[in-house]
Amino acid sequence: MENPKVIKKGDQLITSYVDEKTGKIPAYEVGIKLEVSWKGQWFPAKIVQVDKGKKEVLVHFQNWSARFDEWIKMDSNRLRPSPNTNIVK
Q1: What is the rounded CA–CA span in Å between residue 82 and residue 61?
Q2: How many CA atoms lie within 13 A of 3 on its CB side?
Q3: 39: left (phi > 0), else alpha (psi -120 to 50), else beta?
Q4: Left, alpha or beta for 55 (phi > 0: left; psi -120 to 50: alpha)?
Q5: Which residues, including other chains, have CB under 8 Å from residue 46's CB and lie 6 or more apart?
Q6: What pLDDT does residue 37 have?
Q7: Each residue's pLDDT tens digit, 7-42
Q8: Within 10 Å of residue 28's Cβ, how many Cβ atoms?
């Protein structure tokens, strides 16, 4: 997995987490916002923990109780970038 890239947008430096060519998140870090599929629907979520050894991320669903937090494999089809995830161009 490659590291996130830092791009300049105006006067700001932004850490980008989505590869524009693949549409995937090449590097997972705590705090990244994404969407998670659950029972056929996509929900906004945030990464709260990363286990690089197991290649899993712990996601917290926005506005849900922490009891619904879930470990998901990094290569799962249930994870996708959200409109709030910066794009590497």
Answers
A1: 13
A2: 4
A3: left
A4: left
A5: 31, 32, 33, 34, 59, 60, 62
A6: 95
A7: 555 665 555 566 667 666 767 888 888 899 999 999
A8: 20
Where is average pLDDT lowest: 44-48, 78-82, 84-88? 84-88
Cβ neighbours of residue 2 closer than 8 Å, sequence gap 6 or more: 26, 27
Show the domains of the chain with their CATH numbers: 5-88 (2.30.30.140)
DSSP bridge pairs for 61? 45
Amino acid at 78: R
The answer, as to whether pTM is greater than 0.90, is no
Segment 76-84 shows an average pLDDT of 82
